[in-house]
C-alpha cells in the first residue's frame, strides 16, 4: 500500500544535473567570486602558449624581494636521458636545517622554477635550511617521462649533496602546485619504487593528477576563466600525446593511475571545491587512506584553481596557508612536544569549559591517564 497524498510524482534529476538538465557548480567564495566574475572564459590554445610563457617568466630577484638573508646559487644536474637541468638553491645561515624542494605549476606547459616559490622561501626563513627548485623541461617540446624524470634527478641530487647543501635529509619536504603537484606525487612514487630516500612529507597544492579528464568536477568546469577541462586536455595531451586517456599511461606521469598508494610519506593536499581537480584530489587522498597511508586533505569551500592568487588576502587563502604552515611545522619538528599536543587546549575547553595552554593540556592528559 502506498500513500501519495494526492501529489504528482517527483521528477528525479539525473546525478550531476539540475532540473533543467544543466551541470550545476558549487558556489564561489565571495572574495574569489568578485575576481572570477570579471574574467572571461579563456581555455589554453597552442596559439596562446608563447605569450603565456613570456607572461609567467618569474625571476629570482622578484621571488627574493624583501626576504633578507637568503642566498641564491645555481647547480647543473644530469638527467636520465643525458641532458642537464638547472637547479636553484636558496639557503639561509651556515648551519644544518631542513629542506624543501619546490616544483612549479603551469599545466606542464609553462612557468619556471621561480613560479610560486615565495611562500616556501618564507618557510626557509622561518625554519632555516635550504630550498631547491628545478627548471624541469616543459611539454610539448619535452613529453613524458622527461618532466618527472627531470624532477626526480633533482630530488636524488639534493639527497646526494645534503651535507654540502646544509640540510638534514630526515627533514626534507617535497612540494608542488598544480602540474608541480603532479610531478611531486610522481617523484614520491618513483622514490618509493626505486628504494630511494623518502621525503619526510609531500605537500600538494591543487595537484593535477588524472589525464583522463572525466570526473564530475572536470565536467563542471568544461570552460572557465581559470584552468578548465579544455585547458586540462591541452596540457595532458602536450605531455602524453596520443596516449592520453588510454591504458598506456604511467602512474609516475599521471599519479591518479597508481593502483597502490601505500608506502608514501605523509601527504598534505589542498584544493578548492570549485576547482576542476577537486574530485581527482579527493580520490587520491582516499586511495592513500585505503592503502594505509597518512594524508591530510583540505577542500576549501568556494575556492577555484589557484585561488590564492585571486584573493591573496581573503579568509579562504588565510585558512589554507594556516593549514600548510601547521603541517610543515609538524613534519619538520616531529619531536617538538608543543606541536604534538597543540590540539589539547581545545579538547580541555570542550570537556571542561576551562582555558589552558599547551602545558595545561599535557597535565590534563596525564591526569586522564592516571585515572584509567
From TrEMBL:
**GO MF annotation terms:** hydrolase activity
Q: Which domain of life is it from?
A: Bacteria
Basic and acidic residues biased stretches: 12-23
Residues in Alpha/beta hydrolase fold-3 domain copies: 100-308
* Keywords on record: Hydrolase
Could you tell me which residues belong to the region Disordered? 1-27
InterPro entries associated with the record: AB_hydrolase_3, AB_hydrolase_fold, GDXG_lipolytic_enzyme
Q: What is this protein called?
A: Alpha/beta hydrolase fold-3 domain-containing protein
Q: Which organism is it from?
A: Tessaracoccus flavescens
* Top-level taxonomy: Bacteria, Bacillati, Actinomycetota, Actinomycetes, Propionibacteriales
Amino acid at each position: 500500500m502506498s500513500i501519495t497524498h494526492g501529489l504528482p510524482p517527483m521528477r528525479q534529476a539525473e546525478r550531476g544535473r539540475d532540473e533543467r538538465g544543466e551541470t550545476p557548480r558549487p558556489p564561489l567564495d565571495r572574495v574569489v567570486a568578485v575576481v572570477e566574475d570579471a574574467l572571461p572564459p579563456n581555455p589554453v590554445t597552442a596559439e596562446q602558449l608563447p605569450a603565456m610563457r613570456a607572461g609567467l617568466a618569474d625571476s629570482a630577484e622578484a621571488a627574493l624581494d624583501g626576504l633578507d638573508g637568503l642566498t641564491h646559487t645555481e647547480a647543473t644536474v644530469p638527467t636520465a636521458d643525458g641532458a642537464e637541468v638547472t637547479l636553484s638553491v636558496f639557503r639561509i645561515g651556515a648551519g644544518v636545517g631542513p629542506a624543501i624542494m619546490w616544483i612549479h605549476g603551469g599545466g606542464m606547459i609553462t612557468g619556471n622554477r621561480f613560479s610560486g616559490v615565495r611562500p616556501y622561501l618564507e618557510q626557509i626563513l622561518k625554519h632555516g635550511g635550504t630550498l631547491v627548485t628545478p627548471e624541469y623541461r616543459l611539454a610539448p617540446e619535452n613529453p613524458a617521462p622527461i618532466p618527472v624524470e627531470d624532477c626526480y634527478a633533482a630530488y636524488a641530487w639534493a639527497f646526494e649533496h645534503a651535507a654540502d647543501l646544509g640540510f638534514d635529509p630526515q627533514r626534507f619536504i617535497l612540494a608542488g602546485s598544480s602540474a608541480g603537484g603532479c610531478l611531486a606525487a610522481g617523484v614520491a612514487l618513483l622514490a618509493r619504487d626505486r628504494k630511494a630516500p623518502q621525503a619526510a612529507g609531500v605537500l600538494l597544492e591543487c595537484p593535477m593528477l588524472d589525464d583522463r579528464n572525466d570526473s564530475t568536477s572536470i565536467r563542471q568546469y568544461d570552460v572557465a576563466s581559470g584552468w578548465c577541462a579544455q585547458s586540462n586536455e591541452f596540457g595532458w595531451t602536450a605531455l602524453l600525446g596520443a596516449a592520453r586517456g588510454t591504458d598506456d599511461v604511467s602512474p609516475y606521469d599521471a599519479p591518479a593511475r597508481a593502483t597502490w598508494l601505500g608506502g608514501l610519506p605523509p601527504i598534505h593536499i589542498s584544493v578548492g571545491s570549485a576547482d576542476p581537480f577537486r574530485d581527482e584530489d579527493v580520490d587520491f587522498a582516499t586511495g592513500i587512506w585505503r592503502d594505509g597511508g597518512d594524508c591530510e586533505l583540505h577542500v576549501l569551500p568556494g575556492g577555484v584553481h589557484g585561488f590564492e592568487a585571486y584573493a591573496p588576502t581573503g579568509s579562504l587563502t588565510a585558512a589554507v596557508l594556516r593549514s600548510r604552515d601547521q603541517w610543515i611545522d609538524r613534519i619538520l619538528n616531529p619531536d617538538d612536544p608543543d606541536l604534538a599536543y597543540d590540539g589539547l587546549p581545545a579538547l580541555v575547553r570542550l570537556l571542561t569549559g576551562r582555558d589552558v595552554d599547551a602545558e595545561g593540556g599535557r597535565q590534563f592528559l596525564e591526569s586522564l591517564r592516571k585515572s584509567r
